[in-house]
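User: Could you check the structure of this?
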Amino acid sequence: MLYSEKVMEHFAAPHNVGEIENADGIGEVGNEKCGDIMKMYLKINTGIIEDVKFKTFGCGAAIATSSIATDMIKGKRIEDALKLSNKAVVEALDGLPPAKVHCSVLAEQAVKTAIADYYRKQGIDPTPIVGEIPEHCHGDCSNHD
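Assistant: Sure, the predicted structure tokens are below.
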């Protein structure tokens, strides 16, 4: 399985790893059966994602997609972060092998789940803003390295 240089960089030295104490939003996606679990923490101030951290248990592609997704939303307005798509994550990493594209979907879902959690904590129903977030594993989950 060939990974791009960008994937290898983010896997070898992922950005924004860790947790945020008293995070404004926390999103966890994936499951043990799938093999990849991503947890994303957001610090939000006046609609801006001031800080974002992640913890990912999974393959190199899962770690790389988490890392680049945090880079892509840090410092952005919530509305812009919600536009993050798995396609944009894959493009930012200069591509992913087909068997690993589901990792980029998890990264997108982790961001949206954390934002939904932020709205819930504000007493706002996140569904009209964030949309429905499917909670299932994509792709061939038995295909882990």
